Amino acid sequence: MPEQFERGTLGRLRLHVLPTKRFKTFAVSLFAGVPLSESGVTPTALTPFVLRRGTESYPETIAFREKLDELYGAGFGFDLYKRGDHQVVQFRIDMINDRFVSTNESLLKEALRYLGEAVTAPALEDGRFRSRYVEAEKTTVTKRIEAIINDKIRYAAERCTEEMCKGDPYRLPSLGRKEELAGIDAASLYSHYRQWLEKAAFDLYVAGDTTLEEVESFARQAFRLPDGTPSGYSKPVLVPAREQVQTIVERLDVGQGKLNMGLRVASTYGDEDYPALLLYNGLLGAFPHSKLFVNVREKASLAYYASSRLDGHKGLMTIQSGIEIPNYEKAVDIIREQLAAMKRGEFAADDLGRTKAMLSNQLREIQDSAFERIGFDYNAIVSGKERTADQFIADLEAVTPEQIVAAAQGVKLDTIYFLRDKKGGA
Fold first, then answer.
1. Residue 228, Cα to own-chain centre: how many angstroms?
2. Average confidence (pLDDT) over 119-140
3. Which InterPro entries match (predicted)?
4. Where are the beta strands (DSSP E) in 240-343?
5. What is the pLDDT of residues 361-385, one digit of tens each?
6. Domains, the chain, ranges and CATH?
7. Cα four-point dihedral sign 341, 346, 349, 350
8. Can you name the residues that pair with 310 across neighbouring β-strands?
9. How far apart are the C-alpha atoms of 367 and 143, rounded to whole Å?
10. Confidence of residue 229 (pLDDT cuts 50, 70, 90)
Protein backbone atom coordinates (compact mmCIF):
# COMPACT_ATOMS: atom_id res chain seq x y z
CA MET A 1 0.00 0.00 0.00
CA PRO A 2 1.35 3.47 -0.85
CA GLU A 3 1.84 5.86 2.04
CA GLN A 4 -1.25 7.95 2.70
CA PHE A 5 -2.19 10.87 4.91
CA GLU A 6 -4.25 10.01 7.97
CA ARG A 7 -6.85 12.58 9.06
CA GLY A 8 -8.27 13.82 12.31
CA THR A 9 -9.70 16.91 13.96
CA LEU A 10 -8.80 18.63 17.19
CA GLY A 11 -11.34 21.38 17.81
CA ARG A 12 -10.68 24.07 15.18
CA LEU A 13 -7.58 22.24 13.95
CA ARG A 14 -7.65 19.70 11.13
CA LEU A 15 -4.82 17.15 11.36
CA HIS A 16 -3.10 15.50 8.39
CA VAL A 17 -0.34 13.03 9.23
CA LEU A 18 1.83 11.10 6.77
CA PRO A 19 3.48 8.23 8.69
CA THR A 20 6.65 7.42 6.77
CA LYS A 21 10.19 6.21 7.39
CA ARG A 22 11.34 7.57 4.03
CA PHE A 23 12.78 10.77 5.51
CA LYS A 24 15.30 11.34 8.32
CA THR A 25 13.47 14.49 9.33
CA PHE A 26 10.03 15.67 10.37
CA ALA A 27 8.29 18.17 8.11
CA VAL A 28 5.61 20.27 9.80
CA SER A 29 3.35 22.81 8.11
CA LEU A 30 0.50 24.80 9.59
CA PHE A 31 -1.75 26.45 7.01
CA ALA A 32 -4.04 29.29 8.12
CA GLY A 33 -6.42 30.57 5.46
CA VAL A 34 -8.92 33.43 5.57
CA PRO A 35 -11.01 35.02 2.80
CA LEU A 36 -9.21 37.85 1.03
CA SER A 37 -10.67 41.15 2.17
CA GLU A 38 -10.04 44.87 1.75
CA SER A 39 -9.79 45.52 5.48
CA GLY A 40 -7.93 42.34 6.41
CA VAL A 41 -5.28 41.77 3.76
CA THR A 42 -2.60 44.08 5.22
CA PRO A 43 -2.92 43.22 8.94
CA THR A 44 -3.12 39.51 8.07
CA ALA A 45 0.11 39.85 6.08
CA LEU A 46 1.83 41.68 8.93
CA THR A 47 0.74 39.20 11.61
CA PRO A 48 3.21 36.32 10.94
CA PHE A 49 6.12 38.78 10.83
CA VAL A 50 5.23 39.85 14.38
CA LEU A 51 4.52 36.29 15.56
CA ARG A 52 8.07 35.24 14.61
CA ARG A 53 9.54 37.75 17.07
CA GLY A 54 8.71 35.99 20.32
CA THR A 55 6.26 34.01 22.43
CA GLU A 56 4.86 33.89 25.92
CA SER A 57 7.72 31.61 27.07
CA TYR A 58 10.40 33.29 24.92
CA PRO A 59 9.35 36.95 24.66
CA GLU A 60 12.78 38.10 23.52
CA THR A 61 13.54 37.35 19.88
CA ILE A 62 17.08 36.11 20.56
CA ALA A 63 15.87 33.51 23.07
CA PHE A 64 13.00 32.51 20.75
CA ARG A 65 15.43 31.81 17.92
CA GLU A 66 18.00 30.14 20.18
CA LYS A 67 15.34 27.58 21.07
CA LEU A 68 15.68 26.29 17.49
CA ASP A 69 19.33 25.52 18.20
CA GLU A 70 18.23 23.41 21.15
CA LEU A 71 16.06 21.47 18.68
CA TYR A 72 19.26 20.45 16.84
CA GLY A 73 19.13 23.30 14.36
CA ALA A 74 15.45 23.06 13.46
CA GLY A 75 14.28 25.46 10.75
CA PHE A 76 11.30 27.76 11.22
CA GLY A 77 9.74 30.09 8.67
CA PHE A 78 6.57 31.12 6.90
CA ASP A 79 5.15 32.03 3.50
CA LEU A 80 2.26 34.23 2.40
CA TYR A 81 0.24 33.56 -0.74
CA LYS A 82 -3.21 33.40 -2.29
CA ARG A 83 -5.20 30.23 -2.93
CA GLY A 84 -8.41 30.90 -4.79
CA ASP A 85 -10.23 33.67 -2.92
CA HIS A 86 -8.21 33.12 0.27
CA GLN A 87 -5.07 34.60 1.81
CA VAL A 88 -2.96 31.84 3.31
CA VAL A 89 -0.15 31.93 5.87
CA GLN A 90 1.95 28.77 5.89
CA PHE A 91 4.19 28.24 8.91
CA ARG A 92 6.92 25.58 8.50
CA ILE A 93 9.23 23.67 10.83
CA ASP A 94 11.66 20.97 9.87
CA MET A 95 13.83 19.08 12.31
CA ILE A 96 15.80 15.88 12.53
CA ASN A 97 14.16 12.67 13.68
CA ASP A 98 14.88 11.76 17.31
CA ARG A 99 16.38 8.42 16.23
CA PHE A 100 19.45 10.15 14.82
CA VAL A 101 20.37 12.26 17.87
CA SER A 102 20.79 11.78 21.60
CA THR A 103 17.73 13.26 23.31
CA ASN A 104 15.37 12.28 26.09
CA GLU A 105 12.50 14.47 24.86
CA SER A 106 10.57 13.96 21.64
CA LEU A 107 11.82 16.58 19.18
CA LEU A 108 8.49 16.46 17.37
CA LYS A 109 6.67 17.24 20.60
CA GLU A 110 9.02 20.15 21.28
CA ALA A 111 8.69 21.44 17.71
CA LEU A 112 4.89 21.36 17.84
CA ARG A 113 4.99 23.12 21.19
CA TYR A 114 7.25 25.77 19.64
CA LEU A 115 4.96 26.22 16.64
CA GLY A 116 1.79 26.19 18.70
CA GLU A 117 3.09 28.86 21.03
CA ALA A 118 4.42 30.98 18.16
CA VAL A 119 0.98 31.04 16.54
CA THR A 120 -1.39 30.98 19.51
CA ALA A 121 0.57 32.40 22.50
CA PRO A 122 2.66 35.32 21.22
CA ALA A 123 4.73 37.76 23.28
CA LEU A 124 2.50 40.54 24.65
CA GLU A 125 2.71 43.72 26.69
CA ASP A 126 -0.32 45.32 28.37
CA GLY A 127 -2.63 42.83 26.68
CA ARG A 128 -1.47 43.56 23.12
CA PHE A 129 1.48 42.91 20.83
CA ARG A 130 4.81 44.46 21.76
CA SER A 131 4.93 47.86 20.07
CA ARG A 132 8.59 47.67 19.13
CA TYR A 133 8.03 44.37 17.36
CA VAL A 134 5.08 45.73 15.42
CA GLU A 135 6.92 48.88 14.35
CA ALA A 136 10.03 46.94 13.32
CA GLU A 137 8.03 44.44 11.27
CA LYS A 138 6.01 47.19 9.57
CA THR A 139 9.37 48.38 8.25
CA THR A 140 10.22 44.82 7.15
CA VAL A 141 6.96 44.44 5.23
CA THR A 142 7.38 47.89 3.68
CA LYS A 143 10.80 46.85 2.34
CA ARG A 144 9.37 43.57 1.02
CA ILE A 145 6.67 45.46 -0.88
CA GLU A 146 9.20 47.96 -2.23
CA ALA A 147 11.37 45.05 -3.39
CA ILE A 148 8.48 43.86 -5.57
CA ILE A 149 8.28 47.29 -7.19
CA ASN A 150 12.01 47.07 -7.94
CA ASP A 151 11.60 43.57 -9.41
CA LYS A 152 9.90 44.65 -12.62
CA ILE A 153 9.02 41.10 -13.74
CA ARG A 154 7.10 40.43 -10.53
CA TYR A 155 5.70 43.96 -10.44
CA ALA A 156 4.28 43.61 -13.95
CA ALA A 157 2.73 40.25 -13.06
CA GLU A 158 1.02 41.68 -9.97
CA ARG A 159 -0.17 44.79 -11.82
CA CYS A 160 -1.66 42.68 -14.61
CA THR A 161 -3.61 40.65 -12.04
CA GLU A 162 -4.69 43.83 -10.25
CA GLU A 163 -6.07 45.36 -13.46
CA MET A 164 -7.67 42.12 -14.57
CA CYS A 165 -9.41 41.54 -11.23
CA LYS A 166 -10.73 45.02 -10.44
CA GLY A 167 -13.66 44.65 -8.07
CA ASP A 168 -12.48 41.17 -7.04
CA PRO A 169 -10.58 40.61 -3.75
CA TYR A 170 -8.10 38.49 -5.74
CA ARG A 171 -6.54 41.73 -7.00
CA LEU A 172 -5.22 42.34 -3.47
CA PRO A 173 -1.52 41.45 -2.99
CA SER A 174 -0.74 38.71 -0.48
CA LEU A 175 1.75 41.03 1.28
CA GLY A 176 -0.90 43.71 1.74
CA ARG A 177 -0.71 47.37 0.79
CA LYS A 178 2.15 49.62 1.77
CA GLU A 179 0.01 52.71 2.34
CA GLU A 180 -2.07 50.92 5.01
CA LEU A 181 0.83 49.91 7.24
CA ALA A 182 1.22 53.34 8.85
CA GLY A 183 -2.29 53.12 10.30
CA ILE A 184 -1.64 49.85 12.12
CA ASP A 185 -0.47 49.85 15.74
CA ALA A 186 0.12 47.18 18.37
CA ALA A 187 -3.44 47.34 19.73
CA SER A 188 -5.25 47.27 16.38
CA LEU A 189 -3.04 44.48 15.06
CA TYR A 190 -3.61 42.36 18.16
CA SER A 191 -7.36 42.85 17.81
CA HIS A 192 -7.17 41.71 14.19
CA TYR A 193 -5.00 38.77 15.20
CA ARG A 194 -7.63 37.56 17.68
CA GLN A 195 -10.27 37.71 14.92
CA TRP A 196 -7.90 35.88 12.58
CA LEU A 197 -7.50 33.08 15.14
CA GLU A 198 -11.28 32.74 15.35
CA LYS A 199 -11.96 32.78 11.60
CA ALA A 200 -9.02 31.07 9.90
CA ALA A 201 -9.12 27.55 8.51
CA PHE A 202 -6.25 25.76 10.29
CA ASP A 203 -4.66 22.65 8.78
CA LEU A 204 -1.71 21.04 10.57
CA TYR A 205 0.44 18.68 8.52
CA VAL A 206 3.16 16.38 9.84
CA ALA A 207 5.21 14.05 7.66
CA GLY A 208 7.70 11.63 9.24
CA ASP A 209 8.11 8.63 11.47
CA THR A 210 5.08 9.26 13.70
CA THR A 211 1.38 8.44 14.00
CA LEU A 212 -1.87 10.37 13.92
CA GLU A 213 -2.44 9.49 17.57
CA GLU A 214 0.96 10.84 18.62
CA VAL A 215 0.53 14.09 16.68
CA GLU A 216 -2.95 14.55 18.11
CA SER A 217 -1.59 14.14 21.64
CA PHE A 218 1.23 16.63 21.06
CA ALA A 219 -0.99 19.15 19.24
CA ARG A 220 -3.61 19.09 21.99
CA GLN A 221 -0.97 20.41 24.40
CA ALA A 222 0.59 22.84 21.93
CA PHE A 223 -2.23 24.87 20.33
CA ARG A 224 -4.57 27.24 22.14
CA LEU A 225 -7.07 28.01 19.40
CA PRO A 226 -10.50 29.47 20.19
CA ASP A 227 -13.29 26.90 20.43
CA GLY A 228 -15.31 25.96 17.39
CA THR A 229 -15.40 23.64 14.41
CA PRO A 230 -12.90 23.65 11.54
CA SER A 231 -13.50 26.27 8.85
CA GLY A 232 -13.53 25.31 5.17
CA TYR A 233 -12.60 26.88 1.85
CA SER A 234 -15.22 28.20 -0.53
CA LYS A 235 -15.03 27.35 -4.23
CA PRO A 236 -13.96 30.43 -6.22
CA VAL A 237 -16.50 32.09 -8.48
CA LEU A 238 -15.34 31.90 -12.10
CA VAL A 239 -15.62 35.35 -13.66
CA PRO A 240 -16.13 35.52 -17.44
CA ALA A 241 -13.62 37.44 -19.53
CA ARG A 242 -14.44 40.96 -20.68
CA GLU A 243 -16.23 41.15 -24.02
CA GLN A 244 -13.66 43.71 -25.14
CA VAL A 245 -10.06 43.03 -24.15
CA GLN A 246 -8.70 45.89 -22.04
CA THR A 247 -5.22 47.27 -22.65
CA ILE A 248 -3.28 48.93 -19.84
CA VAL A 249 -0.01 50.75 -20.56
CA GLU A 250 2.08 51.86 -17.59
CA ARG A 251 5.24 53.92 -17.84
CA LEU A 252 8.20 53.65 -15.48
CA ASP A 253 11.97 53.97 -15.77
CA VAL A 254 12.58 50.62 -17.47
CA GLY A 255 14.88 49.64 -20.30
CA GLN A 256 13.00 46.51 -21.29
CA GLY A 257 9.26 46.22 -21.84
CA LYS A 258 7.20 43.75 -19.78
CA LEU A 259 4.23 42.41 -21.72
CA ASN A 260 1.77 40.47 -19.60
CA MET A 261 -1.57 39.04 -20.64
CA GLY A 262 -4.33 37.91 -18.32
CA LEU A 263 -6.74 35.20 -19.44
CA ARG A 264 -9.84 33.64 -17.88
CA VAL A 265 -10.22 29.86 -17.99
CA ALA A 266 -13.33 27.75 -17.57
CA SER A 267 -12.05 25.22 -15.01
CA THR A 268 -10.30 25.04 -11.66
CA TYR A 269 -8.25 22.42 -9.81
CA GLY A 270 -11.36 20.66 -8.51
CA ASP A 271 -12.92 20.09 -11.94
CA GLU A 272 -12.70 16.83 -13.89
CA ASP A 273 -11.24 18.54 -16.97
CA TYR A 274 -8.42 20.23 -15.02
CA PRO A 275 -5.77 17.74 -16.30
CA ALA A 276 -6.62 18.79 -19.88
CA LEU A 277 -6.24 22.45 -18.91
CA LEU A 278 -2.90 21.72 -17.25
CA LEU A 279 -1.69 20.09 -20.46
CA TYR A 280 -2.99 23.07 -22.44
CA ASN A 281 -0.83 25.37 -20.29
CA GLY A 282 2.15 23.06 -20.75
CA LEU A 283 1.80 23.13 -24.52
CA LEU A 284 1.22 26.88 -24.58
CA GLY A 285 3.99 28.21 -22.38
CA ALA A 286 5.14 26.22 -19.35
CA PHE A 287 8.14 24.41 -20.91
CA PRO A 288 11.04 25.06 -23.31
CA HIS A 289 9.23 23.14 -26.07
CA SER A 290 6.04 25.20 -25.60
CA LYS A 291 4.58 27.44 -28.28
CA LEU A 292 5.40 30.73 -26.60
CA PHE A 293 9.03 29.82 -26.00
CA VAL A 294 9.56 28.38 -29.49
CA ASN A 295 7.61 30.89 -31.57
CA VAL A 296 7.90 34.14 -29.64
CA ARG A 297 11.40 33.78 -28.21
CA GLU A 298 13.27 31.40 -30.51
CA LYS A 299 11.84 31.79 -34.02
CA ALA A 300 10.73 35.43 -33.97
CA SER A 301 13.40 36.59 -31.48
CA LEU A 302 10.84 38.98 -30.03
CA ALA A 303 11.22 38.17 -26.35
CA TYR A 304 13.96 37.64 -23.76
CA TYR A 305 11.55 35.31 -21.99
CA ALA A 306 8.03 34.11 -22.76
CA SER A 307 5.98 31.72 -20.65
CA SER A 308 2.52 31.04 -19.26
CA ARG A 309 1.33 30.24 -15.76
CA LEU A 310 -1.94 28.64 -14.69
CA ASP A 311 -3.59 29.51 -11.39
CA GLY A 312 -5.72 26.43 -11.00
CA HIS A 313 -7.37 27.61 -7.78
CA LYS A 314 -8.75 30.83 -9.25
CA GLY A 315 -9.42 30.05 -12.92
CA LEU A 316 -6.79 32.43 -14.28
CA MET A 317 -3.89 32.10 -16.67
CA THR A 318 -1.18 34.67 -17.25
CA ILE A 319 1.38 35.08 -20.01
CA GLN A 320 4.64 36.84 -19.19
CA SER A 321 7.22 38.12 -21.65
CA GLY A 322 10.09 40.57 -21.70
CA ILE A 323 10.42 42.44 -25.01
CA GLU A 324 12.11 45.36 -26.70
CA ILE A 325 9.62 48.21 -26.40
CA PRO A 326 9.23 48.80 -30.19
CA ASN A 327 8.27 45.12 -30.62
CA TYR A 328 5.04 45.48 -28.64
CA GLU A 329 2.57 45.13 -31.53
CA LYS A 330 4.49 42.23 -33.11
CA ALA A 331 4.69 40.40 -29.81
CA VAL A 332 0.97 40.84 -29.08
CA ASP A 333 0.09 39.56 -32.55
CA ILE A 334 2.25 36.47 -32.38
CA ILE A 335 1.06 35.58 -28.86
CA ARG A 336 -2.53 35.90 -30.06
CA GLU A 337 -1.60 33.57 -32.92
CA GLN A 338 -0.43 30.93 -30.46
CA LEU A 339 -3.72 31.17 -28.53
CA ALA A 340 -5.67 30.77 -31.78
CA ALA A 341 -3.51 27.82 -32.86
CA MET A 342 -4.27 26.02 -29.60
CA LYS A 343 -8.00 26.49 -30.20
CA ARG A 344 -7.55 24.88 -33.64
CA GLY A 345 -5.65 21.97 -32.12
CA GLU A 346 -2.41 22.84 -33.90
CA PHE A 347 0.07 21.10 -31.66
CA ALA A 348 2.28 18.12 -32.47
CA ALA A 349 1.71 14.69 -30.97
CA ASP A 350 5.39 14.65 -29.96
CA ASP A 351 4.95 17.89 -28.03
CA LEU A 352 1.88 16.51 -26.29
CA GLY A 353 3.81 13.38 -25.32
CA ARG A 354 6.72 15.48 -24.08
CA THR A 355 4.36 17.66 -22.03
CA LYS A 356 2.68 14.65 -20.44
CA ALA A 357 6.08 13.18 -19.58
CA MET A 358 7.36 16.41 -18.00
CA LEU A 359 4.23 16.95 -15.91
CA SER A 360 4.25 13.29 -14.83
CA ASN A 361 7.91 13.58 -13.81
CA GLN A 362 7.09 16.66 -11.73
CA LEU A 363 4.36 14.71 -9.95
CA ARG A 364 6.70 11.77 -9.31
CA GLU A 365 9.38 14.08 -7.92
CA ILE A 366 6.87 15.32 -5.34
CA GLN A 367 7.25 11.95 -3.61
CA ASP A 368 10.90 12.77 -2.84
CA SER A 369 10.10 15.84 -0.71
CA ALA A 370 8.01 15.83 2.43
CA PHE A 371 7.05 19.49 2.04
CA GLU A 372 6.13 18.95 -1.64
CA ARG A 373 3.84 16.09 -0.62
CA ILE A 374 2.26 18.30 2.00
CA GLY A 375 1.71 21.10 -0.51
CA PHE A 376 0.18 18.70 -3.04
CA ASP A 377 -2.23 17.33 -0.45
CA TYR A 378 -3.17 20.82 0.71
CA ASN A 379 -4.39 21.53 -2.84
CA ALA A 380 -7.07 18.92 -2.21
CA ILE A 381 -8.16 20.65 1.01
CA VAL A 382 -8.48 24.02 -0.72
CA SER A 383 -10.22 22.67 -3.83
CA GLY A 384 -12.34 19.93 -2.32
CA LYS A 385 -10.95 17.49 -4.93
CA GLU A 386 -8.69 14.74 -3.63
CA ARG A 387 -6.17 13.33 -6.08
CA THR A 388 -3.17 11.14 -5.42
CA ALA A 389 -0.09 11.75 -7.53
CA ASP A 390 -0.60 8.36 -9.22
CA GLN A 391 -4.22 9.21 -10.02
CA PHE A 392 -3.19 12.58 -11.40
CA ILE A 393 -0.54 10.96 -13.62
CA ALA A 394 -3.11 8.44 -14.91
CA ASP A 395 -5.57 11.28 -15.60
CA LEU A 396 -2.92 13.21 -17.54
CA GLU A 397 -1.97 10.17 -19.60
CA ALA A 398 -5.63 9.61 -20.52
CA VAL A 399 -6.22 13.14 -21.85
CA THR A 400 -6.86 13.24 -25.62
CA PRO A 401 -5.98 16.02 -28.07
CA GLU A 402 -9.71 16.66 -28.45
CA GLN A 403 -10.04 17.29 -24.72
CA ILE A 404 -7.20 19.82 -24.85
CA VAL A 405 -8.91 21.61 -27.74
CA ALA A 406 -12.12 21.64 -25.70
CA ALA A 407 -10.21 23.18 -22.78
CA ALA A 408 -8.74 25.76 -25.17
CA GLN A 409 -12.22 26.98 -26.08
CA GLY A 410 -12.70 28.07 -22.47
CA VAL A 411 -9.53 30.20 -22.43
CA LYS A 412 -10.39 33.85 -23.11
CA LEU A 413 -8.05 36.84 -23.26
CA ASP A 414 -9.17 39.51 -20.78
CA THR A 415 -6.34 41.99 -20.18
CA ILE A 416 -3.17 43.13 -21.94
CA TYR A 417 -0.76 44.91 -19.59
CA PHE A 418 2.39 46.59 -20.93
CA LEU A 419 5.05 48.13 -18.73
CA ARG A 420 7.24 50.40 -20.83
CA ASP A 421 9.62 53.34 -20.56
CA LYS A 422 8.61 56.97 -20.08
CA LYS A 423 9.95 57.99 -23.49
CA GLY A 424 8.34 57.67 -26.90
CA GLY A 425 4.76 57.90 -28.12
CA ALA A 426 1.58 56.30 -26.87
1. 26
2. 98
3. Metalloenz_LuxS/M16, MPP/UQCRC_Complex, Peptidase_M16_C
4. 246-251, 257-264, 303-311, 316-323
5. 999 999 999 999 999 999 999 999 9
6. 6-222 (3.30.830.10), 246-420 (3.30.830.10)
7. negative
8. 317
9. 36
10. confident
